[in-house]
Specification:
Blueprint: H1 2-30, H2 34-72, H3 74-102, H4 104-111, H5 121-131, H6 134-150, H7 155-179, H8 182-207, H9 221-251, H10 257-292, H11 296-323, H12 325-333, H13 340-354, H14 357-366, H15 368-371, H16 377-401, H17 403-427, H18 437-461, H19 463-466, H20 472-496, H21 502-508
């Protein structure tokens, strides 16, 4: 399990690093004002569809059904089901694209309350009509990735996201200097990236013998079953994304507020992507196979190990974002039109997000415990409660703390969701923690606290370098060194407190099987 998580995580890390370079260049060209808010709004809708329809509800329902056919009927039967499903999916996505293109202006007005009053609305609508076609490509990418993940092939789906950021970088470095139109180049880069991402997973499917011959879409019994499983998942995934969207919508009342949340969330998404997404992608087919094989004890053990590994990996990132958020944002994004005050606000937002980072990672680990048993309704109920919590808190906290309050509301809501998922699995008798779980986790927190104090002290000493205006590579090198030292301290503390031995760590990361 950790080996597959490592494969997905490494490729996701490459994507995230390229993504940071991309965001740094975007911040330099667009700053943190009105045009930056327009870009964030233009990328928001296709990104929402990717997370809700593609990676969220669809895969939560599709992967267990495909895996079951793969286990019981073989590849031919599983691929026949996939062909029928993807054909119907394509038809639905095209309908969503046409609807969104036609009604883009009211959609932008609804999701960006402050745009209509200060001139941001018209360019946001024009830009969004270019980027919205990405929702068709990326949801198909998610569907094909589900097929590959069910077959224990994780490399190509993760690499597809590397392609996205590579296309952005080519556009920003090569084309923007020649055209002087960063917003337009960014929008068309989204379209080109979608085509190339689809090509990556499609070629991988064909090379691995997946039968993807197109067929006429038909709403048969399998489609009905998938729809019934997806319906709660759509609500569940939609509510999760609604939490972030509500925060951005409220933050749009302040010029630059939407951008501050976007850039802080980009940093926060690093551990969420590396750990949370990787754990969820690997755990869902793993637990599903255990259950299909009648090994419920193995399924519980996989879930428990996933929780422990997720905490082991996410705690150092969480603590770092809590103790040096201002230094992180300044070191990465300050420069050009993105000035010190913008980085300072984004740093405070990042600290508020960090409070909920473990919660959103643990939720990704806990949800496969429901999805693998084809229970998508229970997580749906929990996420509705989570959304209500967020909506109740977000505006009062915005009035008190500005955009920072929007991020804090999202974090509080995330912990509510984890509590509900945890006790729900315990009530269903599916939370079988391995021996010594609480002791090891407690020592992980101690190790992370030791690392946090050391990183805070080192950042205080190195503040003149980390906060040097206009010296991007100097700041970035210093931050890289600080992060490396922090990780070494964390590993030493983990070994010193007896969480894992050196032999344990070597064994967990040893590679061998196909990924």
């Amino acid at each position: 399990m950790l080996r597959n998580m490592f494969t997905v995580g490494v490729l996701t890390l490459v994507s995230r690093v390229l993504g940071f370079v991309r965001d740094k260049l975007i911040a330099t060209h667009l700053g943190s004002g009105a045009m930056s808010d327009v870009w964030v709004a233009a990328f928001q809708l296709p990104n929402l569809f990717r997370r809700v329809f593609g990676e969220g509800a669809f895969n939560a329902a599709f992967v267990p059904m495909y895996s079951r056919r793969l286990e019981e009927g073989g590849e031919k039967e599983a691929d026949a089901f996939a062909r029928r499903t993807l054909s119907l999916m394509f038809m639905i996505l095209m309908g969503c694209f046409v609807f969104s293109f036609i009604f883009m202006e009211p959609i932008i007005k609804l999701t960006n309350l402050g745009f209509a009053t200060d001139g941001r609305l018209e360019p946001a609508v024009a830009a969004s009509r270019i980027t919205v076609v990405y929702l068709v490509f990326i949801c198909l990418v998610a569907g094909l990735s589900g097929i590959l993940n069910s077959r224990k092939i994780f490399g190509a789906p993760a690499f597809a996201y590397v392609v996205l950021n590579a296309v952005f970088l080519i556009g920003l470095v090569v084309i923007v200097p020649r055209t002087g139109e960063p917003l337009l180049v960014l929008c068309w880069s989204v379209v080109v990236a979608g085509v190339l991402q689809l090509a990556v997973v499609l070629i991988s499917c064909l090379r691995n013998g997946v039968d993807l011959r197109p067929r006429l879409p038909r709403f048969d019994d399998d489609a009905k079953r998938l729809s019934l499983l997806m319906a709660p998942g759509l609500v569940s995934a939609s509510v999760q994304q609604l939490n972030l969207m509500v925060g951005q919508t409220i933050a749009s009342l302040q010029v630059g507020g939407k951008t501050a949340i976007f850039y802080a969330d980009r940093i926060n998404q690093l551990p969420l992507g590396l750990i949370g997404m990787a754990a969820g992608v690997v755990l869902l087919p793993e637990i599903t196979r255990n259950l299909r094989g009648g090994d419920e004890a193995g399924a519980k053990r996989s879930l428990s190990q996933g929780l422990e590994l997720a905490l082991f990996l996410c705690l150092p990132a969480t603590i770092a974002m809590l103790v040096i958020p201002r230094e992180i944002m300044y070191a990465i994004f300050e420069g050009g039109k993105f000035e010190g005050e913008s980085a300072l606000l984004a740093g405070y937002v990042l600290a508020a997000f960090a409070i909920g980072t473990p919660a959103y990672i643990l939720a990704r680990v806990l949800q496969p415990g429901y999805f693998a048993r084809e229970d998508t309704r229970t997580p749906m109920r929990y996420t509705i409660i989570t959304a209500i919590t967020n909506m109740v808190l977000v505006y009062p906290l915005y009035l008190w703390l500005g955009p920072v309050g929007c991020a804090l509301a999202t974090s509080v809501a995330g912990w509510v969701n984890v509590g509900l998922l945890w006790f729900g699995l315990r009530g269903a008798g599916f939370m079988g923690l391995t021996g010594g779980f609480y002791s090891r986790v407690g020592r992980m927190f101690l190790a992370a606290a030791i690392m946090g104090f050391a990183v805070w002290a080192l950042a205080d000493v190195g503040e003149p370098i980390l906060m040097a205006q206009g010296r991007f590579f100097q700041r970035l090198g210093a931050m890289g060194l600080l992060v490396s030292v922090g990780l070494l301290i964390y590993l030493a503390a983990v070994i010193g407190t007896g969480v894992y031995s050196v032999a344990d760590l070597k064994r967990k990361f040893r590679r061998g099987n196909r990924t």
